TrEMBL record:
One of its GO terms (molecular function) is diguanylate cyclase activity. InterPro entries: Diguanylate_Cyclase, GGDEF_dom, Nucleotide_cyclase, Rev_trsase/Diguanyl_cyclase. PANTHER family: DIGUANYLATE CYCLASE DGCM-RELATED, REGULATORY COMPONENTS OF SENSORY TRANSDUCTION SYSTEM. Pfam families: GGDEF (PF00990). It comes from the Bacteria. Its EC number is 2.7.7.65. It catalyses: 2 GTP = 3',3'-c-di-GMP + 2 diphosphate. Residues 243-376 form the GGDEF domain. This is diguanylate cyclase.
Length: 400
């Protein structure tokens, strides 16, 4: 089924379009996932750590100014506290950055400054220990501490600027994410619609192919293949229910003359209108099929011989009286009909068809526009039943 679908130009285009939509949906889905991860990043804790770290620098300046009036040991303790606090803030900030994988690349250029600040704080701690033994180093210690405080202030201000810029990008990413989600939704809906249309198209093509296999293109009636299948099932059912089944072969009289006189298009139109009339006159349970050029077959389940003969003569009369629309023929077409039947599904379709064909040949030989019946050997003759029609219904043909 899929191979038949792919052979169709529309099927190939639908498959290509669906593949493109699926690829685009996958790419868009990857972008949406990445954007969601980036847009959902929360920098609140990191910003809080930076703000706290920034407060250490002004506190250091105040401590150094007040420390000038204090003994040297207390002065150095203020500087040690600044060093300890600055290191703790620096570690917290670096740990927070490591937890934001989308932030690492944007602030990577500050790694050197972080390392340098950490190294200078370590050097300041060593200098503070020496100053405890050498009071003359207090002034250089204070100067270095102020320089480190200024460098620390610059680093954290720069980091805050970067985070603000990233937050702006984050808002833009959210907007783009909304657009991407909308586009992704449209693509998914389009892909779903395309696949549904492809499935519907394939289903219709399968139905068309199935119908072409079972029907006659010109008349719309069933073809011989379908008739054989239905007849086989009907005979099996008749055998199970011990019911009669009849078969009628119908042939348009002098159809070759119609083709020769009016042309094949006119002959085709005669076949179409006669087929339509026969279909209207048939029962819903009957199966009407075109099995040859101008030859038709009517399978009548649960129908005894005399009923089949009666129905056949009614069909013959209706066709003879039927005036074809839009056609100017010298006379209305007529049909000859051969009838046979069997009880309890005792015959095969081929046997029934052979008997009906012989009956049709007899009707043609006896002048056309008439009904003839031929029953299987040992079957009761309809002559023995006073309620039935005679096995031959003779009508003088109007064109013979």
């Amino acid at each position: 089924m899929m191979r038949r679908f792919l052979r169709q130009p529309g099927g190939r285009l639908a498959l290509i379009f669906a593949a493109i939509l699926c690829a685009m949906s996958a790419i868009m889905g990857s972008y949406v996932y990445s954007a969601c991860q980036k847009a959902s990043a929360d920098y609140t804790t990191l910003i809080s750590d930076i703000v706290l770290a920034q407060q250490a620098t002004p506190q250091l300046r105040v401590a150094l100014e007040e420390g000038r009036r204090l003994p040297s040991n207390e002065h150095i303790q203020y500087i040690d506290y600044f060093i300890s606090l600055s290191k703790r803030h620096l570690d917290n900030i670096q740990n927070s950055i490591e937890h934001h994988r989308y932030l690492i690349a944007d602030v990577e250029y500050l790694n050197h400054h972080f390392s340098e600040l950490n190294s200078r704080l370590s050097d300041l701690a060593l200098l503070s220990q020496e100053a405890q033994q050498r009071p003359e180093l207090i002034d250089p210690l204070q100067s270095v501490a102020m320089e480190i405080g200024s460098a620390q202030s610059w680093l954290y201000n720069q980091l805050l600027e970067d985070i603000r810029a990233i937050s702006v990008q984050q808002r833009l990413a959210m907007q783009r994410l909304s657009i991407a989600v909308s586009v992704l939704l449209v693509l998914m809906v389009s892909a779903a619609i395309t696949l549904c249309m492809a499935v519907i198209y394939l289903h219709r093509q399968r139905n068309v192919m199935h119908e072409l296999m079972l029907t006659d293109e010109l008349t719309g009636l069933y073809n011989r293949r379908h008739l054989v299948n239905v007849a086989s099932a009907g005979l099996t059912q008749a055998q199970r229910n011990r019911a009669p089944l009849s078969l009628l072969l119908l042939d348009l009289d002098h159809f070759k003359q119609i083709n020769d006189t009016y042309g094949h298009p006119a002959g085709d139109e005669v076949l179409r209108q006669v087929s339509k009339k026969l279909r209207e006159l048939s029962r819903p349970s009957d199966t009407l099929a075109r099995i040859g050029g101008e030859e038709f077959c009517l399978l009548m389940p649960n129908t005894a011989t005399h009923d089949a003969i009666q129905a056949a003569d009614r069909l013959r009369q209706e066709i003879e009286a039927n005036t074809l629309r839009g056609m100017e023929l010298h006379a209305n077409p007529t049909i000859s009909i051969g009838v046979t039947s069997c009880k309890s599904g005792s015959l095969t379709f081929e046997q029934l068809y052979s008997l009906a064909d012989k009956a049709l040949y007899k009707a043609k030989a006896l002048g056309r526009n008439r009904v003839e019946s031929l029953l299987p050997p040992n079957a009761p003759s309809p002559h023995n039943d006073p309620l039935t029609y005679a096995h031959t219904l003779i009508h003088e043909p109007s064109d013979s």
